[in-house]
Write the structure tokens for this entry.
Amino acid sequence: MLQGTGSDVGKSLLVAGLCRAYTRRGLTVRPFKPQNMSNNAAVTAEGGEIGRAQALQARACGVAPAIDMNPVLLKPQTEVGAQVVVQGKVWGKAKARDYQALKPELLPQVLESFARISAEADVVLVEGAGSPAEVNLRKGDIANMGFAEAADLVTEMTQVKHPFKEGVKAQKGVEIVEVGDARDHRDGDPDRRVARRALPRGLLNRQRVLGR
């Protein structure tokens, strides 16, 4: 799972590039984004809507876009509200505060979509949203660390990564790579990176972060 130090740091394009690279190596690859906020939607073969970025990532994998690649799509309609699309279908509208309360109810659909995507792929490249450092959005999170933790229920790392013969127990869950843009003054600022790393262990489960 690729999580960013903030929005607009290149997560979507990086996932698309990795999708193409792994596909060219002969692997079956699928993109996945639990929650996306964008008015730029694409229509899948099922007739549902997903984020355009996930449609691009699907093309990089050489497959048709599918609703399970982006189970929750938020399409802003006002400064404080958005249309909520769940597994390709319009669920309704919600203001920001109401959506915070709704997120736990959407998690089962997110995990359901992730399970289906995982079942048909060798590699699933998961894209986070914004940054897990946004502590105001942590409660009920289904887009970043909240998803990574909840996904323990439906995915497991392989023995190749955690060989029993070397004494390393198999570990369930989603591994995380942090993504930033050094050309952006926000991520090029060492103080911002230090602050990102200094988050409480309860907030950022560093056992999941590669290269920590």
In short: The helical segments are 11-24, 52-61, 96-119, 145-150, 185-188, 190-197.
